[in-house]
Amino acid sequence: MRILISGFSEFGDNKVNPSRLLAEQVNACAGHGVDWSGADVRGVVLPVEFEVGFQRLRDEIGLFRPDAVLSFGLAAGRRTIDLERFAVNWRESSSMGASVVAGELLPDCPLALASTLPIESIFDKAKGACLPMGISHSAGTYVCNDVFYRMQNHFLRSRVRSGFIHVPPIGTDCTLDQLVQFASLAIGVLKDRR
Ligand code: PCA
Known about the structure:
With about 190 residues, this protein is an alpha/beta fold. The chain has one domain (about 1-190): Aminopeptidase (3-Layer(aba) Sandwich), CATH 3.40.630.20. Helices cover about 35% and strands about 20% of the residues. It is built from five helices and eight strands; from the N terminus they run E-H-E-H-E-E-E-E-H-E-H-E-H. The chain has helices spanning about 20-30, 50-65, 120-130, 145-155, 175-190; strands at about 1-10, 40-45, 70-75, 80-85, 85-90, 110-115, 135, 160-165. The strands form two sheets. Strands 2-1-3-8-4-7 form a six-stranded mixed sheet, with helices on both faces. It has a two-stranded antiparallel ribbon with strand order 5-6. Strand 1, helix 1 and strand 2 (about 40-45) form a beta-alpha-beta unit. Helix 2 (about 50-65) runs parallel beside helix 4 (about 145-155) and helix 3 crosses helix 5 (about 175-190). Pyroglutamic acid binds near residues 8, 19, 74, 140 and 142.
């Protein structure tokens, strides 16, 4: 089973993006040190730019042909690892960087698309391992949501499972080791479901 894990670069005032650290850590420890349930795991870091972020992810999907994609991004104001349920077909003008016009991401497409990850099972397993967990109903209207929506649209009518996870800043609430542990547990759940 092949699993692609994406993170994002730094953006705005966020000088550290834990999702990038996670994606890099995945590549650094692929094959040793962490239990990936026998999966072939690869990390990719995306630029924080509408459309361009997803283009990078799509290129990697084309090359790696994953069975599942776990896409991660930073939510600076949150304190838990949040499994996102829905991506919305909307982007809002950004206070962080270049101004963008608010509007639909993809015309004539559904207002929202759901994660196809087994959210409850992943949540229960991670919570059982004492990780700081949450379930969220909105990934916002910035680049994380843009990547999430385009990814869900890309995998419509496919067997590939995909979803988005927002993570808090690295610190007292959550460590990088806990993010790696979360990814490992989530992959274990995906493996069990096959
Ligand atoms: N977080 C931003 C974009 C990149 C990231 O890591 C977001 O929540 O949209």
